[in-house]
Structure formats: structure tokens, C-alpha cells
């Protein structure tokens, strides 16, 4: 894990920018220090978690879409993580051990982090970490347009093929030494989603709305375009959904 020092940063996008209103206004936020995972959680790490907690089938189906038999008609639109369950053991697909886990629900991400004595980052913690000390920039590395070294703007044409992610740590880290804060997989955070939250957000250690319908997703994924992988971009989905482009990382105080 990497220590993110206490202090303020500018969160969100300027009011006059061309970006969505849910990113506005930009505002100064103070956060206490915290540690965050250097890399996104991998298939290998998530398989270890599943083998440790041994969820029953109904619980496991609420957590992750496993790669198994794809020949049946009802699974033609089914997009799995590269983890299999064989002979009572969860295993990462060979060659994909160090790829980020995907197709996991918010509940799975939350359970994994708590299993390690950690938690999901708040939306503010995630954005401060992603910015890497660079206020007002579009991406973790600055304002330069993303290069081909970043895992984004890809197409998963056939779910019988592996997800088009790259191994974690596949291009240069940001200023805090964090990898894949843009692209590869997007990441669940702890906050409920409110499109107008920035208007009323606390200035110190915001935790997000107390309730909601959707959970916030940050960072953009292998499927996202250059706009969606900006550090200020906010996405969301139902916490029980298991999007093929979403994974996570953990924090600890």
C-alpha cells in the first residue's frame, strides 16, 4: 500500500468546463492521511479470498461472474472474470493471475476489503489518490492525451475470449506511485451516488450521501474512451450489478 498524506486538494471539474454537471463545482477538500493499494485487486488475490471465506453458491453468485461453460444459449451475453471453480477450488485462469478482477459487485468489493481489515476508498480519497498531487489536471499523469500504453478504448467482441485487460502495473505510475488509476478496470468506491453531492459536500473527509440507489464508480475501464478515464469523471451502478469493466482497490487508515 501507499501512504497518501493528509492535506487538501481540488476535487471535481471547474463550473465552466465542458464536462458533466455531476463533476461540478470544483471544490477544495481536506482529507486525513490514509493508505491505498498500489495496484487494483487481481484475479489471484480475489481467488484467495473466495477460497478462504468459502461462500455458498447463492452468495457467490451475488459477488462475481465466474468463467465456466460458455456453450449454453442463456450465457451468450455473459461476461465473466478470469476465475474458475474446479474441484472445490477457485483458481485464476492461467496467464491472468495478475490481471485485475472484473465482473464483481460492490458487495464483493466491500467484503474483500473487510476480509483484509481494510475498506473501500471514499470517492474523495479515490480522486485525491488518482490525481497524484496534480491539481486541476485531466489525468493521473497530467493533461496529455492518453497513449496506447494505457488500457482503454478496447472491445470485448466475444465472451468466450478473455477480457481485454492488461496486467496491473502496465504503464507508468502517478505521482503517488499508484498504478492503473485510469483505465484497465474502473473501480468501486464506498459512496452512494448523488449527482449534486459536490454542491453540499463537507469540506473535511466527505463520506458521500447517507443513502442512495447507486454506488459510485471511478477511473474508467478497458472499454472507456479518453473522456471516461479522466480523474474527475463520475460513473455509477447498482451495488448488486457485476459490470465487466469494474474492479476495485482497498484503503486503510
Short key terms for the protein model shown above:
single chain; 253 residues; alpha+beta; four-stranded mixed β-sheet; 5 helices; 11 strands; globular
Q: Could you characterize what this model shows?
A:
The chain is of the alpha+beta class and 253 residues long. The chain has five helices and eleven strands. The strands form four sheets. The protein has a four-stranded mixed β-sheet with strand order 9-8-7-10.
**Low-confidence residue ranges:** none
Give the biggest sheet: 4 strands, mixed
The proportion of strand residues reads 15-25%
Distance between the termini: 11 Å
On the 0 to 100 scale, the average pLDDT is 95
The 3D shape can be described as globular
Strand order of the largest sheet: 9-8-7-10
Radius of gyration: 18 Å
Count of extended strands:
11
List the helices and strands and how they pair.
Blueprint: E1 2-4, E2 7-11, E3 27-31, E4 34-36, H1 43-53, H2 57-60, E5 83-86, E6 89-92, H3 106-115, H4 123-131, E7 186-192, H5 197-200, E8 215-218, E9 235-237, E10 246-247, E11 251-252
Task: Please provide a brief summary of the model.
With 253 residues, this protein is an alpha+beta fold. The chain has five helices and eleven strands.
